[in-house]
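Why show two proteins at once? Because comparison is the fastest way to build intuition. When a single record is shown, students tend to memorize it. When two are placed side by side, the eye starts asking what differs. So, the first record is below.
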Amino acid sequence: MTAFLATSTVIGKTPGHNGIEIDTRERPRVRAYRLAAPPNLDGLVNEPFWADIEPATNFIQQQPNEGLPATEQTEVRIGFDDDNLYFGIICFDSHPENIVVTQNRRDASLTDTDSIEIQLDTFNDKQNSVIFGTSPTGIEFDGQVSKAGQGRGGVGSPARAGGTGGGGAQRGGSAAFNLNWDAVWWVRAQITQRGWEAEIKIPLRSLRFRPGSDQACGLNLRRNLLRRNEQSFS
């Protein structure tokens, strides 16, 4: 794998009545950058190379004000080397003392805590994807979505398919969510003065993708800001 280009895939969204028309907007693109050295996986996105990477940002609310910009900024940077895919995440928060953390066990519901989810459609087929999620304390949440994309909106949303809502694997409608899938990966997160931050390392062997260069993958990023009951995505 010599390059990784991710395109945002709208998953299970309806038109925003207060701002951007979510289903018809141009899908943003974000590039993954080859790293000369891996990050120090400490949950602080402060290595100089992170600053040189253009982030995915400009998150849009899904709830409560669908289509409006998120109330707090989020930046997600992507890097890779021959063996791993890396994410550097900054969830800015104007009041970090009010960040909500209610879960500390693996695969716990991410809807009950401040959190972020990364959904990777590695074949860009809008049918299947894998999900990696975490919280300000660095819990590990992962799962698989399959048989999605049969309805409007593309890849099925894990929240609607029973994923981040908890309760284990659940099948319904056109989507199937498998919470029992556990990948090998690592995450560290910390609450900082600018909000909370996380660094994620996913071995490429934990992912299925087409070998080759300059391939595009579907990507959905979702942030949960619990105290405002706000979910936003990019």
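Second record. Ask yourself what differs from the first in the token line.
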Amino acid sequence: MKNTLVINRKFYDSVNSEKNIEIINKFGYENADSFFRGICDRLNLEYEFTKLSKYRFQSSEESRKYSMFSGFIEGDISPYSQVVISFTPIDTKLGNTNIVQEIMPMIANQMKDNIAFLLDKSIKKISILTSRFNLNNTISKDYNTLQMNVNSLNTINFDVIQFFSVKHLSPDTKFNNLVEYLEMAKFLQRKNLANDQFEYFYLESNTLFGNALASQIKGQWQKTFVFKYFTAIFSGKKNYKYNIDGVLKHGIIDNQLLNLKKFVDFINETEIDFTQTIEIPLDDVIESNDEVENTDDINRLPEQALGKGGRQRYKTQRKIRDKVLQQYNYLCNCHDQKHFYFESSDSFNNYVEGHHMIPMNRQSEYWEDKQINLDVESNIVPLCPTCHAQIHLGSRRARLEILSEIYVRDEIKLKRIDKDIDLVKLVSFYNIGLEQEEEKYLMSNAIMKVQKKREGQL
């Protein structure tokens, strides 16, 4: 059975405007019709279940539930009960903030009927970036607000797809915990004081408080605040309580804040399945056992296959990983005299795991930008389970300690993958912002520590 993409007529008409036609022409689309057919093709390429053959416009009743920049898939969408899709404006002066401004009305409409919309695993939620963010669709190599918004979308359970490729943007990253999210938010706020919502987020007695001045609550502020607070909830899960009385006390409550208030009460009062585990986040990467002629060919074409969620994901090769583990004599890359190992169940060697230093969730970014395959010997190091968990799930201090040590040990290997990489860029892949003075301190300590380990003093 073939399915139908159901879109809002207003979005279709806006795509057909003279200015937007000029933009989509540069991306290879003649008009709005070819543009939306292209979206159908892209979704079919990304997912097993979409099976789109056409699109249609929403009825007036359907439009009340979906905003101008959102739609859904009609037909057999098994295993899901519903597939909702959010778009972004083709051209905008608001830059990356349009992601927030255009997705929030749809989320609010959905939450009217289902307060657990964002938690509902039977509903597939997809955000397609259909914007030209600037003339070249290139963003800063440093951690930036657009990357943070994409991380937030992934964190609140949206898949992110770049319809128009954005250079230096990773569509698959998310936040692992609340502290990580708040630390990165504060880092970006120091760089851009306009991100004032975060100034009024604070943790106290295991509760995340959200506050505001009455003068702030105007214009588009509510949408941005609610989006950021949703991200905080999904980062913190049931480890915290949530309180936005400091915003509500001013009595300026619109649809966005009302939905957030209901959701906060729902989270605080209900046993929610956030499915927390200590498992290393692998982003649904598929491990394969294919024949690879050159295991360190950084220009080898990355291959994809369908992951557990029915979406195309990048494959990693077991033989490449095993070769690296053998080269390191099955010792953790942070090996010292006190390191604890246990024997692997399928061999007499230490049990260690292969870790991609530049994470595989950056593969699409590196292939688009540099034609680099990240699943190669030069990008893999062995880590014991403790160090591997620490690098993904530890505190900021703990993760910086191990990342700086890995950088010092394997800088030559890393620069074979990315000649411009430094510690600041590497840790940004792990949602850590780093100031220049802190980088100098970390590098100095890591150099000294690595040297002592090599000399057997640690």
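One difference worth noting in the second protein: DSSP finds 16 helices and 14 strands in the chain.
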